Each structure stands twice: as structure tokens, then as C-alpha cells.
Amino acid sequence: MTTATTAPAPAVDAAPPTPRPGVARALLHNRLALAALVFLTVIIVCAVFAPLIAPADPNAQNLLGRLRPPAWQTGGSTAHLLGTDQLGRDLLSRIIYGTRVSLLVGTGAALLAGTIGTIAGLASGYFGGWTDRIVMRVADVQLAFPAILLALAVVGFVGSGLWYVIVVLGITGWVSYARVVRSEVLSLRSRDFVTEAHAIGVGHVTIMRRHLLPNVLAPLATIGTLHIAAAIVAEASLSYLGLGVPKETVTWGGMLADGQLYLGTSWWIAVFPGLALMLTSLAINITGDALRDVADPKAYRR
């Protein structure tokens, strides 16, 4: 006589994302991505240690030394390597301090937009039905308005300020996160590990947090990186128009606005902040592209 024994059911755990082999090797072989990462590291160091790195007070005025050219041009001085602006303020110091606002706005807006978009995308893809219809219709309505015009309207209504700009850019940028997360969740919710979690009574919130969210982190990281660059450019655009960060705060967009009247005579006032803005956005975009390639399994079959 034999006694049947029933083995205990194995606990259902979150399915980890598919590992990507050779991630570090792929990044090391991408020289352009490495150069972008080195440049971003320099920018971050400048933002964190700006008071120690900047050669002068960014707001200190010296009208006797106004409109001095860069150090390598005739009339330039090594005390002001990139020259001075129309009020005699050191341009290099202002660019270094401007990295603080740009990185803070870009990172803050990306985190806020990513949080809103991830929650909306998880709920939309997981529950479907009316939840999906409502979230997607709201996203469609927001996409009907150009993001920069919507940001201009909101900032013009609530007023300018650093945190206002972060909130506005975050709220206007959640749609891309939500649509990507929704599409990923739609393909994951019928997988075995989700079905088994349902069968043993795991709650909806736990399933989304432990089983679905880890599988959408890779595309979220890529979108977030690209959104940081877009938010930096958007903040510079708002500051250029006088609707972003207050004038007393050093920003690259504000420096561009100050230098536009001197392009014919003192080109460095606008060119150097513009180069800083362009190179930072380019480096972030290159890094985002590299992350996307690394996260794509087909990238390792080339």
C-alpha cells in the first residue's frame, strides 16, 4: 500500500528581466558612448562642486572689464578664460553654475514624468477596459498640444520659478513613459508567472510592483535618459523667453538671451553657453542610444 504525497507548490516569485550578456563590454567597445559618459561625468562634477571649481562669483559685476574676449584672443586675459559678458561677469563661472540648474531641472522633470507615466502605464496595461481607455484618451489629448506650448501656457499662468518649471516639464512629459509601459505590460500580463500569481491570490498591486515593474525598467531607463536632454533644452527655451527660472539664477537659456544682442561684436557671450547646452544634450542622447542598444538583445547578434 502506497501513500500519495503531494509536494508543496513552489512559491511564485517575480520573473526577473532577461539578463543582457556583455553589457559592460558592449559599452566599453562603443567609443562614442564612452566619450559621452566622460563628458557627462565632467558636467556632473562641475554641477556638484561649482563653488570650488568656478574661478569667480558668477554674479560679480565689473563694468570696467565688460565684454572682454576669451583668453586666446587679443585683449583677453587668463583671469577670464572664456571672456566676460556685458556686465563684466566671468563667463566660465556662469557656465559652470548653469550646469546646476540644467541638471536639476532635467533630472527632476524626468523623475516626475517617469513616476506618473509608469503608474499610469501599469494601471492601463494591467487592468485594461475603461482604465485603459481613459488613460490613453487623456494621453491622446495631451499629445494634441505641442509640449513646449503647453509648458509656456502653464508657466505663464502659474508663474516662473525653478520648481514650477520642474513640475510643468514633468507633467507634460509623462505620456511617452505611459505608452511604452502599457505596451510592455500588455505583453506580460498573460505570461505564466503573472497567471500563477493570480492563481495563488497575489494582489494586483503586488503583481504590478514585484512581477511587472522589474520587466519594464530597461525601456524606462532609456526613455528617462532621453527625457533629461529634452527637459534641459525645454528649460533653456523657457529661460530664453523669460518664463523659466528667475533672472537672478544663472541658466544657459538666460545667458543665451543676454548674448543675442552682442552676436556681431561679442560672440562669446552667446556661443559658449550654446555650446554647453548642445554638447550636454548630445552627450545625454548618445548615452540614451547606447543604453537602448545594450537593452536590445538583437544588438549582440551583430
Write the layout of secondary structure elements.
Layout: H1 23-29, H2 31-48, H3 50-53, H4 91-127, H5 129-143, H6 147-158, H7 162-171, H8 174-188, H9 192-199, H10 204-212, H11 217-240, H12 252-259, H13 268-295
Helix pairs in contact: 2-4, 2-13, 4-5, 4-7, 4-8, 4-11, 6-7, 8-11, 9-10, 11-12, 11-13, 12-13
Short descriptors:
single chain, 302 residues, mainly alpha, 0% strand
Radius of gyration from CA coordinates:
25 Å
Helices and strands, in N-to-C order?
HHHHHHHHHHHHH
Level of helix content?
A: 55-70%
**Continuous helix count:** 13
Assembly status: single chain
Overall pLDDT score: 83
The computed structural class is mainly alpha
The 3D shape can be described as elongated
What fraction of residues sit in β-strands? under 5%
What is the distance, rounded to the nearest whole angstrom, between the alpha carbons of the first and last residues?
60 Å
Total beta-strand segments? 0
